[in-house]
Amino acid sequence: xxxxxxxxxxxxxxxxxxxxxxxxxxxxxxxxxxxxxxxxxxxxxxxxxxxxxxxxxxxxxxxxxxxxxxxxxxxxxxxxxxxxxxxxxx
Length: 90
What we know:
By secondary structure, this protein is mainly alpha-helical. 51% of the residues lie in helices and 7% in strands. The protein contains three helices and two strands; from the N terminus they run E-E-H-H-H. Strands 1-2 form a two-stranded antiparallel sheet. Helix 1 (18-36) crosses helix 2 (46-56), helix 1 runs antiparallel to helix 3 (65-80) and helix 2 (46-56) packs across helix 3 (65-80). The longest helix has 19 residues, at 18-36. The radius of gyration is 14 Å and the shape is globular. The mean pLDDT is 89.
């Protein structure tokens, strides 16, 4: 996952693993909600984002945050082990 540092100090993530980064970020946000009861601002719903990723990979998402987090962990394991292509349904 190449990371380019810009002159102003910002970073840009590029490369073939950009989808994996987005999946990891969505999973981490959901994990924060599950473990700390932290809730994100309206319009930024990690549960909805994770369900979207699961559907993109052909997995029927479950209903609860805990169950979806478990599904996301399994999905990431399959991607990193090379069982699934990280591009999903795109």
